[in-house]
Amino acid sequence: MIFEPLSDSLEKALQILHQGELIGLPTETVYGVAADATNELAVAKIFELKNRPTFNPLIIHGPTRTCFEEHVLWNEKADVLAKTFWPGPLTLVLPRLVSSPLSLLASAGLDSLAIRVPNHPLALTLLQKFGKLLAAPSANPSGKTSPTQASHVEEDFPNLFILDGGDTTVGLESTIVDLTSPSPRLLRPGGISQEEVESVVGPLKFPHQNSIKAPGMMKSHYAPTLPLHLNVQEPSEGEAFLAFGPTPYKGSSVLNLSEEGNLTEAAANLFKMIRLLDRPPFQKISVAPIPLNGLGLALNDRLQRAAATREL
Ligand code: AMP
Ligand code: MG
Predict the structure, then answer these.
(1) Phi and psi for 308 in degrees, rounded to 5?
(2) Is pLDDT at 305 greater than 90 in this prediction?
(3) b vs e for 220-250, b when ≥16 Cβ sit within 10 Å of the residue's Cβ?
(4) Domain extent at residue 244
(5) CA 69 remoteness from chain centre
(6) 167 found inside a domain
């Protein structure tokens, strides 16, 4: 459903976000589907709605540069890019601070975070009033074209609460620049040209092959230190067990992704729970079988990557 940006509908949008649900949000690039970036379950609902086959990291939106200070490690290049192009269609990837309370699923378990201040009055007002950051990828089902009008979002997601901000002015996704190493890399061309970025920070490098397509294989991607065994029905004594659905196994070595067998809840718990089990006295983490429907695809994809990383 599409709503005019009146104060009533802004209040309603804020209420939906506080309840951990999603809204359709206009930005200057394309329309986004936004969730409270501190709420794992709300973020999991984004992946569910978009039907993403993998957990791609999401861009985190804030109303000002200073809002990101408790979440990322700034450097001089990021500072000058932010001062030059924000608010605007430029996303910066920076090292994520371990103390950041943002959803681990939002950055797909990476130790970096993609951040941006959008240049749209409605998005900025909402971000300011909400007081927390928003995770917001484009509001289209995975693999489909990005929406540049509220009606495009409604066609794909008729049940979503969509704020109408008119046609997007840029109509292209944001440019993404990776600043996690000394030489900046252009991860995705977008609303700000390569030349414009280079006029501020000098020549850009290009991504390592496959680094965007397969975030799970990125060097910086969080991989557990303990071996991970998948599709385990019966864990052996002494090993950590990541269960899914009803299980007779209990105790301090067992965590359950979702006792009810709910895949959205499981996605919300995945990165957090692997981190909790990836430590002594355990020597191995066994993971229960997870069905291959809906978000189960992305869950299995991520687990398989985590299991394979040690063999590389
Ligand atoms: P979308 O929001 O659908 O426009 O897509 C977000 C894009 O940002 C994806 O291509 C992601 O791979 C990229 N992205 C988000 N976070 C990161 C990160 N921490 N490192 C590298 N790329 C990222
Ligand atoms: Mg997209």
Answers:
(1) -80, -25
(2) no
(3) bbbbbebebbbebeebeeebbbbbbbeeeee
(4) 228-307
(5) 18
(6) yes
Instruction: Write the pLDDT tens digit of every residue in 187-219.
Output: 998 889 899 999 999 999 987 655 444 444 444
**For the packed helices 296-309 and 263-277, what is the interaxial angle rounded to 10 degrees?**
20
* CA–CA separation, 174 and 28 (whole Å): 9
Task: Report the percentage of the chain scoring pLDDT > 90.
Answer: 79
List, for residues 14-37, the tens digit of each pLDDT value: 999 999 999 999 999 999 999 999
| Residues 6 and 146 both lie in one domain | yes
270 found inside a domain: yes
Confirm whether 138 is domain-assigned: yes
Residue at 282 is within a domain: yes
Pocket of ligand 1 from Cβ distances under 6 Å: 56-59, 93, 107, 110, 112-114, 137-138, 173, 176, 187-188, 212, 215
Going from the Cα of 241 to the center of ligand 1, the distance in angstroms, rounded, reads: 31
Alpha carbon dihedral 23, 25, 29, 30, in 10-degree steps, equals 50
> Ligand 1, atom 14: nearest CA belongs to which residue?
57
* Closest listed ligand to the CA of 27: 1
Nearest atom of ligand 1 to the alpha carbon of 112? 19
Total domains present in the chain: 2
- The reply to whether 25 and 165 lie within a common domain is yes
